[in-house]
Amino acid sequence: MRIGVVVHGPNIIDSGYALDLIELLRTYGEVSARLGGTMGRTAVIDANLEEVIDISRKLVPSDSLKLFYDEQVDVIFLLNYGKSDVTGQVFGYKVYNHFINKIPKNDIPLIQIERPGERDGSVIAWNNDLELVQELSQKLNLDIVTPEEVYDNHIRQDDAGINQRIVHGVSPGENIMVNSVVIGKTNSDKLTLIAKDNHIVDIVGGELKSHGLEKLGEVDLESAIIKTGLLRHAKVTPRVISNKKPDDFIVTFLDHAGEDVYKFRNSSLVITVGDDTTLISSDILYRFDIPVIGITDGDLDKVVEDGFKVKDSIIFEVESGFDDIIGHNIKKEIFGGKQESYDFTDIDDVKVKIEEIIKNINCKYKINYIN
């Protein structure tokens, strides 16, 4: 039997269950595994699992499932470890529906293993009733949940209209991230986002952050990736990969946190704009020993437990609201609208140029050096 496994998110990897489940499934046949989503990439690297879980491509979970469908495997597994049974099951429902809209025929069994090891963990057979589901349920001590139960318990209330999106499994005081942009904070255990003309205009159960909404811009609320709380919960020791430094000094510009940071792994230096973008990207680039120059304004929303930065990185903290303005000027004056520059010799050379740009707009700032 040929088995395709899509691994989603850092928690299933950090917990050790991703590898345990892959090893278990290998007793049933030939297993191939790939990541679905982006936040699990650092977890795969830290766990030294690149040879087990393919992270070479940035794919949403439904596209990772479709690749296995195109390869005509015999069965596909989706491994996830949601913040709660509700969030995990709703996640699976949305991924499954995105997946079946991308394939001509829904004829390959898809099985989700959700929150293994937890009392509310489950096995969900989204389109089949294989004996394998019963067997895995017993071996893993997980309840079997049907798609109908997921819909009736968690989805039916979402039918209020295409301009509303209920977010399940939240807690008060958590950041709300839409497509990797922090747009507010929860103040309740029930959250609903409301959009009009593809812009989020209101919220029930939280407070919106106007600066975040400006960064987000237009959004399809139905298909948007929405997360609350920390992106990665586990305390980890980051694994630094030996990275061959380029012969030229390559400086790259990171527009926003939603970009694929991993494509910058051959850079000499990355300039990042915004507190959250700097926190997330510097943490990832730490694995490749790449320093950053971050432009921040002190408006930080904690989205990872620890944010690692390479020694000799430089953080400019500017006046509130000026980070985007300075970022725009940096992109124009240093990069000419492109994403790479070969005009500098080292990080100090870049620092001098950025100071010049900041001074030209008469903005107060301070510099923090990472030692």
Task: Describe the overall structure.
With 371 residues, the protein is of the alpha/beta class. Helices cover 30% and strands 25% of the residues. It contains eleven helices and 20 strands. Strands 3-2-1-4-5-6-7 form a seven-stranded mixed β-sheet, sandwiched between helices. Helix 10 (323-335) crosses helix 11. The relative contact order is 0.09. Residues 157-162 have low confidence and may be disordered.
Please provide a brief summary of the model.
A hairpin with a 2-residue loop joins strand 9 and strand 10. Helices cover 30% and strands 25% of the residues. It is built from 11 helices and 20 strands.
Q: Main attributes?
A:
single chain; 371 residues; alpha/beta; six-stranded mixed beta sheet; 11 helices; 20 strands; 30% helix
SSE blueprint and pairings:
Blueprint: E1 2-8, H1 10-14, H2 17-25, E2 30-36, H3 40-46, E3 53-54, H4 61-70, E4 75-80, H5 85-100, E5 110-114, E6 122-125, H6 131-140, E7 143-145, H7 147-155, E8 164-167, E9 175-178, E10 181-186, E11 191-196, E12 199-204, E13 206-208, H8 210-216, E14 226-228, E15 251-254, E16 269-273, H9 275-285, E17 292-296, E18 314-318, H10 323-335, E19 340-341, H11 347-360, E20 365-369
Parallel strand pairs: 1-2, 1-4, 2-3, 4-5, 6-7, 15-16, 16-17, 17-18
Antiparallel strand pairs: 5-6, 8-11, 9-10, 9-14, 10-13, 11-12, 15-19, 18-20
Helix pairs in contact: 4-5, 5-7, 10-11
